[in-house]
Amino acid sequence: MKKLVLYIILFTTLFPLTASSFIVTKEALESALVMNNSEIITLQQQLIKGELEEKKAKMSRYGTLEASVGYSYMANPPIGPITTSTDTIFSQLTLPAGFTLGENQYITLYDGMENTLFNSELTYTLPLFTWGKINASVEMYSSLKKVYEQQLIEKRGAMNSEIASLISSLHHMQNIVNYLKEEKKIADKILTIAYDSFNVGMITSLDYKENQIEFFALDETLINTTYQRDELIQKLEKLSGVTDLDEAIIHDDIKMGEITSFVKRPLEELIEMGNRAFMPIISGLENAESASLAVYDIAKGNLYGKPDFALELSLGYGGSRVPFIEKDWFGQDDYTFNISVGMKSTLFDGGKAITEAKKAQSDIITQRAKTSEAKRNIAIEIEKYRNEIVTHQQLLSILSQKISILEEKTLLIEKEVEQGLSGEIKLLTHQLDLRNELIKKEQILLKIKIAYISLLHITTVEL
Fold first, then answer.
1. Which of 10, 191, 303, 321 has its CA 20 to 30 A from that of 419?
2. Which CATH superfamily is domain 32-62+132-306+351-463 in?
């Protein structure tokens, strides 16, 4: 029932019940991702296992309580009845003179074991001193659990960023497809005029074929771009697990104003944001380093001549009667209660303990190197994406001015065509040039957004 309600909520989030067209938001796709993506589900289950391992390590501090119970039926008990004769007894005695023995008789001294045998034991073992191995084990599993948490956060962040990138790519790719369709209509008019001009001898066959080649090249570009757009939809469906998506219902809500505001922050501030301890990559590596330190402590505790001490309490009962059920079970006095202190130590194992300690020490050095490298790389990546955004914003500003001039020029040429001062070919060619520049603008806008999404992911700022 809960699962049904969750699907209903997700459906209404994906497709709001309004009179307008359905809109699929980034948040809805992210929610679907959590439910459907196998990598996310695997990491979630890994985190659950990590939490259980941590609890198991903590519980080892309190020792173990074990019980064993056995009940047997013996058709032929190993100890049978024990008897003796009166002659044997009297032969061991000094009898008074004139004492006369009667007839020899057999006396049963022990009836033998019964056919049933009941055994039970309750044992409690408590570690007293383990050279810190238990605490190190708790620290190791606690650090590993945090590593799994950060891996899940990082994976979700990376996939959410990928969803945002695909949505933006789909939006601008669709705009490019629309511009290419407009160009195709314009090119079709140019080709028609060229054909008429060829028929009346105004242009050569070579000129006409050149126009045809340009038309086919444009048609090829449109087909390839449409295919790339459809590929983006398929990737988005595969990643989120939501099918039957369409570019018309997917909304790209990243605004250029927020990008400009974000990159105005000083570079040092952005690097500081990326280097904070809660940042998934850094935090995961630091916790992995802590886990390596704990493994090293465990390995040191296992070195030769370092005994572990434990207290053992045992309470047992054994006999032919089942306690509390059969009669006379208490009278047999078959109880045991023992208190023991044990010691266990490895004296020689062919160098295995020393090897494990050295391996753990090597892992610590490796994890520290990875953490330092990650911090350096994060600073480099932040600077790279920030510079990429700033550079493309400058190019966008120049291109926007160029497009504005082309639009003004288009109006002037339209007036010239109306007045008969210019031909339609000039206007159509100019319209093609304008749309080519608009396509370049879409490409630059997409590059800015992709760099912005990557920068947000590194600095852990939510989209």
1. 191
2. Outer membrane efflux proteins (OEP) (1.20.1600.10)
